[in-house]
Amino acid sequence: KKVGFIFDLDGVIVDTAKYHYLAWRKLANELGFEFSKEQNELFKGVSRKRCLEILLDIGKIKATQEQFDTWMIDKNVDYLAYIEKMDAKEILPDVPRVLEYLKKKNIPIALGSASKNARPILEKVNLVSYFDSIVDGNSVTKAKPDPEVFLIAANNLGVNASSCIVFEDAVAGIQAANSAKMTSIGIGDSDILDEASYNFKDFTEISDSFLESLLSKKSK
Ligand code: G6P
Ligand code: MG
């Protein structure tokens, strides 16, 4: 059976989670409240709109539609300023090795991200050419933990959902992969990502032999 790999972007390929956090914290501070790193965990993998809803809940702020729309734009403008100077140095350790390994074996690779900024980021870090399909926040209507983004990616790759393997750093992303019946690999804190099929701190822990065994298991 044909196997496919799906990578989340933020926090998996590049550490943009810190820039999202800085931009949301700036907005929170401007609105007069604090926003902690712990609270930011809930924002990982979650759409921009949903993030703002959660942020306003945290700050107990009621917004008009106009304010809501303005703050969404403000946050993204700040985020874009943070990522403006991004380059290949911001690719997380060993991500290129794993991409290269899969490419050499002709395994189809997709991006499955909630971000509307996914494509420009991949371009900045020069990784676009590895991806057979890029599914991002512009192509989905339902945000993670809904499996839509990963199901579209599987479909684009021409691979059955159950033959896909997903790398994710967000709880919502692991849940999305699980409900798509995919193999989920948590990248980050295994206590937070305890619903994943496998857990690794980062890609340096993912050996070629692990990938090999996963491939042979999934292709049966
Ligand atoms: C990723 C990040 C989230 C972010 C979402 C939308 O999933 O993990 O923290 O909110 O993308 O990103 P965007 O770039 O469209 O605001
Ligand atoms: Mg992520």
UniProtKB/TrEMBL annotation:
- Report the domain of life of the source organism: Bacteria
**Cofactor(s) of this protein:** Mg(2+)
Q: Does the keyword Magnesium apply?
A: yes
Chain positions recorded as Mg(2+) binding sites: D8, D10, E168, D169
Record note on cofactor: Binds 2 magnesium ions per subunit.
Q: Which GO terms describe its molecular function?
A: beta-phosphoglucomutase activity; magnesium ion binding
Site note Important for catalytic activity and assists the phosphoryl transfer reaction to Asp8 by balancing charge and orienting the reacting groups, residues:
S113, K144
The record's annotation in CDD domains points to: HAD_BPGM
One of its Pfam families is Hydrolase
| InterPro entries linked | B-phosphoglucomutase_hydrolase, Beta-PGM, HAD-like_sf, HAD-SF_hydro_IA, HAD_sf, PGP-like_dom2
Q: Name one GO biological process term.
A: carbohydrate metabolic process
> So where does substrate get bound?
D8, L9, D10, W24, K75, S113, A114, S115, K116, N117, K144
Q: Which residues form the active site?
A: D8 (nucleophile), D10 (proton donor/acceptor)
Does this entry carry the keyword Transcription regulation?
A: no
List keywords of the entry alphabetically. Answer: Magnesium, Metal-binding
Family under the similarity heading: Belongs to the HAD-like hydrolase superfamily. CbbY/CbbZ/Gph/YieH family.
PANTHER family, from UniProt? Answer: 2-DEOXYGLUCOSE-6-PHOSPHATE PHOSPHATASE 2, PSEUDOURIDINE-5'-PHOSPHATASE
Q: Per its record, how is this protein called by name?
A: Beta-phosphoglucomutase
Which source organism does the UniProt entry give? Maribacter arcticus
